[in-house]
Amino acid sequence: MSDLVLKSLDVVNFRSIRGHVHAPLDAKVVIVHGENGAGKTSLLSALELALTGGVQSLQRADPAYEKQLLHRSASDGRVLLRAVAGTSEHNFRADLNPQGAHSVDALDEKLAAFFRERSFLPQSLLGQLLQIYQDAGSDAASPLAQFVGKLLGLDRLDALEAGLKALIDVRNVRKNVDGWLVAENERARLDRLLAEQRKARRVFDEQIQTILAELTTLCTSLDIPVKVHEELLDRLADELGDERDADAFALLADQQRRLASIRREISDARSATGENAPIPATGSDEATRNFALWEAEHGARVSTIRSRVEAALPDLSMPSEPSQFAEEALKRLRTEQGQQSDRANQARIDIRRHAVALDERDVAVRQRDTIDDEVSRLSSSAGSLGSALAELTSFIADDVCPVCDRDFREVSGVTLSEHVHGKIRTLSASSERLLLLGRARSEVQVTIERLDREVESIAARMLGEEALAEVDRHLATTERLIAELEGLSEVLQEGGRLRAADIAARRAVSEAQSRHVSLAAARETLSSFARSVGAAAIEEGESFEAAASRVDQLLGTQAARLERRLSMRRRGTDLVATIRSAMARRQDADIQIAADLEAWNRAEQALGRAQILRDQGVAIRNAVDKVRSAIIRREFNDRLNRVWRDLFVRLAPSEPFVPAFRIPVSSTQRLQPKLITEHRDGGDAGGTPGAMLSAGNLNTAALTLFIALHLSVPKELPWLILDDPVQSMDDVHIAHFAALLRTLSKEHGRQIMIAVHDRQLFEYLRLELSPAFPDDSLLTLELSRGARRDSVCVSRRLSFKEETALFAA
């Protein structure tokens, strides 16, 4: 928009401007005049608000400035700026309300920033400009850095430098580069994991070597010819699993058990009877005859009662011995008797209680019906009506009803107050009776529900008449059996005793015969067994104990040797299994180490490639810094300082100290400008402009710096707007300043807009900047306002007129 020309500005109720002000701006030069407070700064601020959507100088002073933009006497306002570019017209607008300003149409952010920094110099910024650039710093967002970027077109270099800046510090690289921190963490994790895995593998190796040494000792003791090695574990396992020692140990254990059996038989035979003890005769056994007599006399009766008991108790198995049978049968029958008796008694109790509960429930139901009938005859609203009448008695003063205004004496002989009180007593008694009946009905209802549950419970468990009769019959049978068994108790006890004596006599004869025979053969048996196990036979005169002890000692020695060998074989088998397990874990560790080592190599290679790229990026950034710094030093020290020097010298020709920016000549990666003053005659640099220049020349230095910055960058907006820039200037400075403005307007194509408060200066500038050729133009705007009237803007347009008087002369 380098050809965009301001056309007009309409301001309504903005800051000190009250009402509507229309200011034409379509001229090469626009001069605004007004007394202090007339609205010059407000007019230029309105222009900035329309173009950028904000007022930068006010924002520096108060962040909440937007609430103060609307004139205090108005409820709304607006700012409308019109501009033309060729044949097209552009409108910029902002609306005002008590909460602030709302920008409707404005320049884009880039042009708005150019306007604020290069085209518009507010009055409040003039005295701060040098300090702003002196304290701007060296970051990319500072005003000076932005100016340098625009001046030299270093956007690409700046972007390249900013983009590669994070590569300098590896901590920033971890934040900005996806995967860098992940790769580092993965490598560190794999380092720790590989160290732990290698340590575990060494432990497995040490464990395997220790077990192999122990296994070598065992194989030597067992005379196993196989060499102990990891590759020969299968052969070692086969040798250690040989069953010959186990078979020999099993055979030896059988021999020891046989010897023990022979020794027990000899001992039992010799302890029970002597070697010459006589064998008792069976035919003389009186116990057998006595039991036979008892069996002939009582056997049939006992058999009959046994059958009846087994029929009564089919699930039980009775002992065959008579006395035990009697004891067990009586115990079981008495238990059954008690259970059947309890069941019959409970059944009769349930039958009686069921009938009583039904009667009680019928009585309760009738009582509930009676209560319900009485409740239905009582009014449910008796209590409410009684309360209402009680409230009404306070309004009864005589016999005239306070509700219907009728005299109660016309219908009754009693007074109205007595009649109402009687009615209240009746209603209160009905209410109390209704409450008592409600409580009584609740109690009766609870009783009915309890009786219903009880009737249902009894009916569910109550026995029928046939079942009860069956229980009674079974109970009578059980009682008869108990009585009969109790009557036969002595007979059964006698039969048991006789039967036990018969059995004992028969067993004694059998054992005596067996011992005499076995004792005769025991010596030959023990002698044969001794020869079979490799010991000497029993010698003549050698006792059983001596021979058995000798053979037992031999077998014990052989058993101890075989047990040691079996224990070593089991230990060897366990060691082989442990070695195999350790080898398997070591192999798993080797596989995992190989996989993790491959992953570690990938992470290391990735970090290596990334580090190469980082080094290349740092090298590129250093090269960019060197080129950028060289360009900045050359252009900044020469170009900008030259333009600033020319402008300052033109406005202040007698000032010996000239302000300038100084950037170090040595290579630096940071933009570090410094404001200094240089003497016209040369020599060392002086101090800052604030220390070397007067107040007027300091103002001139700030004004010329702004114009130099404006002229040093490409013309994006052809405007130069100045708010009262000639403060503290003398006549010489003002004359040179007017000549400078004329040059900017006539030769550089800038649209100049300047606001002044001094009347003489206004008239002087109007004369100096008057049109000098046909296309030239000048507009003057005079602002005024009153305490109770709207602001007024009077415009006057001056056009070029050819001077004919000089031609005539």
Plain-language structure description:
Among the domains are: 5-129 and 719-808, Rossmann fold, CATH 3.40.50.300; 211-284 and 507-584; 313-487. Helix 11 (244-272) packs across helix 17 (489-532) and helix 18 (544-651) packs across helix 20. A hairpin with a 2-residue loop joins strand 5 (88-97) and strand 6 (100-105). The protein is built from 23 helices and 13 strands. 63% of the residues lie in helices and 11% in strands. It has helices at residues 40-52, 56-61, 109-119, 123-126, 129-134, 143-152, 155-164, 170-176, 180-221, 233-240, 244-272, 286-312, 322-377, 382-392, 416-461, 465-487, 489-532, 544-651, 689-692, 695-712, 731-746, 759-768, 805-808, and strands at residues 5-14, 17-24, 29-34, 77-85, 88-97, 100-105, 120-121, 657-662, 674-679, 719-723, 751-756, 777-784, 792-799. The radius of gyration is 65 Å and the shape is flat. It is α/β, with parallel strands linked by helices. The longest helix has 108 residues, at 544-651. The strands form 3 sheets. Strands 7-10-11-3-12-13 form a 6-stranded mixed β-sheet, with helices on both faces. It has a 5-stranded antiparallel β-sheet with strand order 2-1-4-5-6, covered by helices on one side.
